[in-house]
Amino acid sequence: MTAAALSPARPKVARSPWLIAAIVVVPAFMEVLDTTIVLVALRYIAGGLSAAADDAEWVITSYLAANAFILPITGWLSAHLGRRNYFLASIAIFTLSSLMCGLAGSLGQLILFRVIQGLAGGGLQPGSQGILLDAFPRERQGVAMTLFGLAVLIAPVVGPTLGGWITDTYNWRWCFLINVPVGIAALSACYFVLRDPDYLVAQRAELKKEPFHFDAIGLSLLAIVIVSWEVMLSKGQEWDWLGDPFWRVQTLVISLVGGLVALIFWELRHRSPVVNFRVLKERNFAACCIIIFCAYLALFAATKSLLGLLQALFGYDALKTGLVMSPSGLFAVLAMPIVGRLIGLKVDARWLIAAGLLIMTAGNYWMSQLNLDISPDQAVWPRVLVVMGLSVCFAPANVAAYLYTPLALRGAAIGLLSLLRNEGGSVGVSLSQTFQERRDQFHVLRLGEYLGPLNPAASDFLARAQAFFVQQTGDPVASQQLAVQQLENLRQQQASSLAFFDVFWMAAVLTFVVTFAVLFMKRSVAEKGGPAGSE
């Protein structure tokens, strides 16, 4: 790389940074929104396309797998195609595939178009983040990451609510078709406003002079790792993990471990790797990767469990469940500008990260102490704390991650961190489901130990229930069976609630433990100087 490519001259932008920010966060918001907007519509999709409910889950899995595959190589694609060109192409293909998803006539067609949508959408988050970092000066990195955080934090929060409202009011197809007018508007605005900064133009010119080396082996290994990982997370619990008698999960684990080892070994020795693991040598970046991964794992685990708790045990429909989840998004919006301002005042990002993680810990712990007698507002406030905590640590973590990352590795770093952020959510959903089902079995057995004939409370409950059913049916034998079934239903309900609360406890422990990662980070203050994209 020549000195020109690493020049500290400020990238020339044709428009105000605020105008650029308003334009580029929209595609990122669309892409993240599509990971959660169809969660509450899966059964409607299965019914509308005459498919099994379990098969409809591939609508989510296919999108996440395609998205995860493309994220690590977005830096390589941007360098060779030009960031503006790649960003515009991603928006165009994402919009077109969204249209095709909405018009799909079968589940197979929908899954195919979701794969295309995920591949295109993978370039939107890193592209938006890179453009924001270059548009704002270095001392305003907190503002840039706050604006980006508004997109990637609010989208998964409002996704279930918006998806439930669209599905109940119109049709599940509009969960996809809603992207079309927004995508066309975003594509038009980005086409006329965005320009690549000087250092990227120089970097691309240098790449054109060198012989083209396409890392086909690295790309193939990456595909094996991502597909094995996503399918294992999606189907692991259904196939009984390592107890799978057909050895499907075991095969996926072998492919994942072997592929990952081979990928790391190969990429560290290739002159132009599609996934550049060298960025992990920087201490701050590596620590922020762990923090962001665990924070999103805790968020999605808590989200999945709260959705299940409200729908399965409280009987809420999709819209009412979304209304309980939504207020947290409002408080996240209010918190992020304050965090951005604190970063601008040179508050060390490490302490903001720690504060955010501890707030998440408090919210999840609060949730774990609830019971089935709560009102809706009592579930709202712990959720507000969880999302506010993530909003407090998100922007500082992104500032700290890229503060010491060399400019030449910026694209690779953004892609890798985006991948870990998305995969944290995938692991959170899978882990919460597995943990909840295993703990459900545990609590059923433990509660059953206290429901024998020597327990006066259980005996009294059965006597009163039997007397009630005798009045209703006039059949003493049937009444006894109904009374026992009533007690069993109560045991199952309480066991399920305890299992859900255990997931919140697990999330609280995780965010508390990962807080100590900030102790291994270097001082992270956005000092005044050049632009964020050209230190």
Describe the structure.
- This protein has 535 residues and is mostly helical.
- It is 74% helix and 0% strand.
- It contains 21 helices and no strands.
- α19 (410-448) packs antiparallel against α21.
Main traits of this protein?
535 residues, mainly alpha, 21 helices
**Beta-strand percent range:** under 5%
Quaternary state reads single chain
Order of helices and strands: HHHHHHHHHHHHHHHHHHHHH
Query: Percent helix among the residues?
Result: over 70%
Quick gist of this model?
This protein is mostly helical and 535 residues long. It contains 21 helices and no strands.
Question: Topology, pairings included?
Answer:
Layout: H1 17-33, H2 42-48, H3 58-70, H4 74-81, H5 83-103, H6 107-121, H7 124-135, H8 141-169, H9 174-177, H10 179-193, H11 198-209, H12 216-235, H13 248-267, H14 283-313, H15 318-325, H16 327-344, H17 349-368, H18 376-403, H19 410-448, H20 456-473, H21 476-514
